Amino acid sequence: MRRRRFISGLLGAGAAMGLAPESSGATTAAAAPRAAGPHDWQSVPAPACATAAQLLGVAAAGPDLAWAVGEEGRNGSTRGKPLALVWDGRTWTRLDLSHLGFNGGCLRSVAGSYGAAWAVGTDAAGVARLLRWDGTTWQEADFAGRTASGTVLTSVALDADDRVWLSGRNSDGCVLLRGDTDGWLWLPRPPSGSTATPAGLRVTRSGDVWVYDSALIARWDHEEWTELPTPAGLRPAVTGLLPVADDDIWLTGFDYGVGGPPGKPPGVTLRHWDGGAWSYAPTPFTVGMLTGIVDDGLGGPDRIAGWDFWDQTRSHHLRWEAGSWVSERGPVSSTAVLVNALAAVPGAGGYWAVGMTPSSPYPPAQVYIER
To answer: What is the model's pTM?
Structure first.
């Protein structure tokens, strides 16, 4: 597979035909290329939270500053309250968010650099919330369409200039919101007219902005949209997208397939776009989920986070090696582990992977972190 710089225009790209959930809002700050070969994953102590806690997003500015977000105190299918942690280079600390006035809900995505950090979530009433880091904690931030009915925010990312990008949807069908010194602007909606609300967002190192979900995969090049056909699937969920070149794009996720008994596990989804079509890529395990993908510091593929149904006592990451994906296991845990999000650490190499233990957001679930 060729790995050249991403260029404008996707060869063979067609209109989206119709393919969910969250992807981490990774930052695009310059990162040192990570050394090839295995990574020695280690679990990291995390602060105690209200039971039924999980982390859904993680981002790092560098080795001495990172953020993780999620929820705690969930009650069955009812969301709990938003949860936020910060890393200072030594320990993870749980932040007091009571000043935000959330009446329940969760935080889904976070992105940050030393210059800026943002997080998005939803409160118990389903209202979109945007938070900005003030150097010590999170503060509520205004955005275009904040009070309008039907506005949803799903993910956040920063570009190389610390300009913030938000995926979601407004009442006009727009799915991408840009924020900079000139204020907030919803970009034109994709030409297919898809009604999908993209759950994921990625800004490439060349500056292109992608939104993606099971029913919409589209790139904004700052002038117009280009849409890819969405891979087929029965009950698919897309968790990550890594555009390397016009003929080299990776997509991660899972698919529940047709029916089945209660508790039936999903099947792993790893797809590759070659410029004309999506194909399945082989994976070391096939039952479970892939939950996020990061590049190697230069834009090429590096690591994928995963959950292996047949061995839930440790994470099952994938490592790009000699043109294929190979297994890389996390530390063994005394209980089941589910990693929900993965982020690379700019400037020093390494990674953060966050989620929960055990592998479902019900008591006594607690947050889980490894690096």
So the answer is: 0.90
